Amino acid sequence: MPEKIPIVSPTLPDPTVLLPTLTDIFASGRVTVGPQVASLEQEVCRLTGATHTVAVSCGTSALMLIARALDLPPGGEVIIPSFTFAATAEAMLWAGLVPVLCDSEAESFTLDARAAETLITPRTCAICPVCVFGVPGDLDAYADLADRHRLALFYDTAQGLGGQYRGQGLGGFGRAEAFSMSPTKVVTALEGGLVTTNDGDLAGRLRYLRDYGKSPDPMEGMRWLGLSARMTEVNAAVARWSLARVEQWVANRQAIMEHYRKRLAGIPGVSFQVIPEWCRSARNYFVILLDPAEAPVSRDDLYHRLHQDHIETKRYFHPALHHQPAFQGRVRTPAALPVAERLAATSLALPMYSHMSLETVDAVCDRVLVHAYA
Fold this sequence. Notes:
Layout: H1 15-28, H2 35-48, E1 52-56, H3 59-69, E2 77-81, H4 86-94, E3 98-102, H5 113-117, E4 124-127, H6 139-149, E5 152-156, E6 164-165, E7 168-169, E8 176-180, E9 193-197, H7 200-209, H8 233-243, H9 246-264, E10 270-272, E11 279-280, E12 286-290, H10 299-308, H11 338-346, E13 347-350, H12 358-372
Parallel strand pairs: 2-3, 2-4, 4-5, 5-8
Antiparallel strand pairs: 1-9, 6-7, 6-11, 8-9, 10-12, 12-13
């Protein structure tokens, strides 16, 4: 194939559309945490139903600041899935916490609440489930578990902006939720992140923490151990343009995903993530599983063959966190994580972005089918 098909591509405005806004930003001299950021935060609250939004530099800093703002004890254990992106664990470690890796649900790929309960010890202080590829887990089960064991509950919803749980926008659950607005996300700021919460005191603390942890009293200096995690006005302007079109983006992605499923469903050993009927996925990634006992081509072989066809794919999430060198000796892992092992060994993300044409989807599917039946 002559042209490369990327696995992700941010859907961005014509630069001339934002030129008046950018001109105003540069003329004002207020380039971080100004009126664009404030407007973005209000608009995210309207979308998610959360009372407060704090815009930050990226999704990882959002997670780091939540863990710090909740005053979790140093060395405390936080239960997270092993089948997730590395940033979930990295944020906990940077906050001085110990990630405890949990198995996932076989169909939705999200944190298994029953498995999580078996991992609770006197050192457990929090649970951080992850929205996987745009699909939230069983939020009611997580809330029940956290309530019964008096644990802090916050979410890595990096891939979930625009998603819903039982008709309510993601963002208003647990103590707080962290979103990413990186170039790979449905709503992008180029780079950026968000924290949403219904806790006014927590939101206030987060606003200081994103600015190094400065005290409200300038004579006092730094009151908290924070980060330089402010969002720029330029990033907020891009994010506002993207956020205003989130329903269109999700609808486009639904059509893309349905077309993929229709074209690939007949391949033996190929299966898809199950989206529970009680949620709306943001559809951040489209991932297939290739069962090595039934599929006519292995996940890794298909990955390499598509690469030769100039089609980008990603073995995602691979490897699972408990097999990554950075986390050896720094996390607690149960004896067996069979679902996470299977998902990491068989999952392949295919190209997916909001402005992707169905003709491009067909081009990808044609090559997958050729390799499956070669």
